[in-house]
C-alpha cells in the first residue's frame, strides 16, 4: 500500500533553495548557468530521503519508473555519469572500481556494494538507470532530442507535482506542458522559449531553474492518486496549515548528455513546512506576500486553490502575532 | 516509433468534408466502395490535379496502392472509423506524415479513455465527461491524449455521495 508517512523536511536551511526574491511571483524564464556542475548532493536528510524514494519505487513501480527498451545505451551513459560524479565529489561516501567492464560501486553511507558488468543489464537488480538513480535522492527524467523537441523516454519520479512518469512516458516537451497558463509578463509563450533554450544547451554546461508548489499533507501529487489527495486538500484549516502545508521547492538542473545528445532533467525536491518559515524572517515575509498575490489561474494550475486561502490566513495570524510581539518588546 | 502519428478523436487530419489541399501535385483517394460518392465529390474539386482512386470493400490491398503513389501525393481517406484507423496506420508505416493525409470518418468517431488506476484504455461515449472504468474507478475525462497509452487521460475522483476517503 502506498504510504505518505514520510517525515523528512529540510533541516539545513542553507541548502534549501528558497524560490522567492521579490514579493510577487509570476512565471518567468529564470534559467541560469549552474555553478556546481556536479548533480550529487548529500544533505542531512540523504539517507531518509533515499530510503523513502526506494520505498515509493517499490510500492508503485509502474507509476514511478518508466523506460523504453531502446534506451539501454542511454541508461548506461547515465549510470556512468552519476557514479563518477558521486565519487568525484564525495570520495569518502562512494567508490567506483573499474576492472575492464567489471565494475564495483560502493555506497558507504548505505553500506551497499554492487559488482556488475558494464553494458550487461542482467548483472544488475534493476535497469541501469533505475539502479543508479536509487542511490541519490533526486528524481531523474531523460528527454531525447528529436525534431527540435524533447521526448520523455526514461523517468524515475518519486516526488511528483501534477506529473506522472507513467502517463507522460513518450510525450514531447510541448505535450507535457501543453495545458499550462504559461505566459510571461509580456505575454510570451514561455514553454516555447524554454524548449528553444534547452535545444541550445551544450555538454558540460548545465543550467538550472527553480520551480515551487505547496503540498497539503502530501509529499507528491500525481494523477494516479488524484482521488485521494484531491479531497484531502479541503481538510486544511488556518489552524493546521502551519504543520500540514509544505513549501515544495524543485531545483531543476538540465544536463546535455554528450553521447546520446539527450537532456537529463535532475529534480532536487525539498520541503519546508509553513511553520518553519519563521526561522528566517525574510523568507516568512516573502512567502506571505507572494501567496497573497497568486492569480487564480496559477493557483488552479498548481493545484493549490482549495487550500491557499487557509494557508494565507495562517500566515496572516502569525504575522499579526509577530508584529504584536515586536511592539510589546519595543514598549517593554 | 512510439510517437508516430495515430488516428484519435481530435486528430489534426480529421475533416468533416474532404477538400483539396494546396501544395500537392497529385491526389490519391482511398474510399469505402459503399460511400463512393465521397470520392466523386472530391474528384470534382480537383480540376486538373492528377488523381488515382482506390475503392475498397476491405482494406487488405490498401498498402500496395499507397506504396505505388509518387512523392508529393496527398492522400484522402473516406471510411468508417475502424477502416480509417487501419489505413491511417498503414500510411504512417509507409512513411507518410499527417500533412499528407486527410481523413473523413463515415459514421461515428471513436474515443478512448486511459484509466490512471488500472492503466488500461477503454472506449467511451464521445460526449461523456465522467465515466466509470471496468475496474470500478470513477474517471473525469481529461483533455490530453497519449499516443503511447492510446487514450485520453482519465482522472480518478471520488463521487460526492461516497465522501472523502
Automatic annotation (TrEMBL), chain A:
It comes from the Bacteria. This is DUF3445 domain-containing protein. It comes from Ureibacillus aquaedulcis.
TrEMBL record, chain B:
This is Uncharacterized protein.
Amino acid at each position: 500500500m502506498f504510504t505518505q508517512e514520510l517525515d523528512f523536511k529540510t533541516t539545513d536551511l542553507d541548502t534549501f533553495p528558497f524560490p522567492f526574491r521579490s514579493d510577487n511571483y509570476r512565471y518567468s524564464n529564470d534559467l541560469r548557468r549552474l555553478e556546481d556542475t556536479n548533480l550529487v548532493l548529500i544533505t542531512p536528510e540523504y539517507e531518509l530521503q533515499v530510503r523513502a524514494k526506494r520505498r515509493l519505487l517499490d510500492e508503485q513501480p509502474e507509476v514511478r519508473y518508466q523506460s523504453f527498451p531502446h534506451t539501454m545505451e542511454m541508461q548506461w551513459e547515465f549510470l556512468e555519469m552519476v557514479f563518477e560524479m558521486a565519487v568525484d565529489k564525495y570520495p569518502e561516501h562512494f567508490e567506483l572500481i573499474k576492472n575492464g567492464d567489471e565494475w564495483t560501486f560502493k555506497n558507504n553511507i548505505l553500506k551497499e556494494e554492487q559488482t556488475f558488468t558494464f553494458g550487461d543489464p542482467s548483472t544488475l537488480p534493476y535497469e541501469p538507470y533505475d539502479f543508479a538513480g536509487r542511490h541519490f535522492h533526486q528524481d531523474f527524467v531523460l528527454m531525447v532530442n528529436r525534431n527540435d523537441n524533447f521526448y520523455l523516454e526514461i523517468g524515475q519520479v518519486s516526488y511528483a507535482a501534477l506529473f506522472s512518469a507513467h502517463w507522460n512516458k513518450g510525450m514531447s516537451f510541448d505535450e507535457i506542458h501543453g495545458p499550462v497558463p504559461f505566459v510571461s509578463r509580456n505575454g510570451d509563450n514561455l514553454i516555447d522559449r524554454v524548449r528553444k533554450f534547452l535545444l541550445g544547451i551544450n555538454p558540460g554546461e548545465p543550467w538550472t531553474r527553480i520551480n515551487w508548489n505547496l503540498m497539503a499533507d502530501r509529499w507528491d501529487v500525481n494523477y494516479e492518486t488524484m482521488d485521494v489527495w484531491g479531497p484531502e486538500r479541503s481538510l486544511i484549516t488556518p489552524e493546521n496549515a502551519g504543520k500540514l502545508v509544505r513549501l515544495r521547492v524543485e531545483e531543476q538542473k538540465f544536463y546535455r548528455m554528450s553521447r546520446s545528445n539527450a537532456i537529463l532533467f535532475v529534480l532536487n525536491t525539498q520541503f519546508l513546512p509553513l511553520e518553519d518559515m519563521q526561522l528566517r524572517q525574510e523568507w516568512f515575509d516573502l512567502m506571505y506576500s507572494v501567496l497573497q498575490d497568486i492569480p487564480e489561474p496559477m493557483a488552479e494550475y498548481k493545484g493549490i486553490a482549495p487550500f491557499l486561502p487557509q494557508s494565507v490566513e495562517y500566515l496572516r495570524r502569525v504575522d499579526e502575532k509577530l508584529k504584536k510581539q515586536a511592539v510589546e518588546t519595543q514598549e517593554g | 516509433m512510439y510517437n508516430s502519428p495515430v488516428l484519435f478523436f481530435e486528430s489534426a487530419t480529421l475533416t468533416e468534408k474532404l477538400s483539396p489541399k494546396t501544395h500537392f501535385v497529385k491526389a490519391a483517394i482511398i474510399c469505402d466502395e459503399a460511400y463512393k460518392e465521397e470520392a466523386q465529390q472530391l474528384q470534382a474539386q480537383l480540376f486538373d490535379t492528377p488523381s488515382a482512386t482506390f475503392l475498397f470493400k476491405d482494406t487488405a490491398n490498401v498498402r500496395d496502392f499507397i506504396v505505388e503513389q509518387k512523392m508529393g501525393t496527398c492522400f484522402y481517406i473516406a471510411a468508417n472509423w475502424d477502416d480509417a484507423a487501419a489505413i491511417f496506420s498503414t500510411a504512417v508505416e509507409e512513411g507518410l506524415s499527417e500533412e499528407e493525409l486527410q481523413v473523413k470518418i463515415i459514421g461515428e468517431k471513436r474515443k478512448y479513455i486511459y484509466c490512471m488506476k488500472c492503466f488500461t484504455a477503454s472506449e467511451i461515449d464521445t460526449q461523456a465527461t465522467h465515466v466509470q472504468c471496468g475496474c470500478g474507478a470513477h474517471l473525469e475525462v481529461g483533455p490530453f491524449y497519449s499516443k503511447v497509452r492510446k487514450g485520453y487521460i482519465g482522472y480518478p475522483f471520488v463521487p460526492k455521495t461516497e465522501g472523502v476517503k
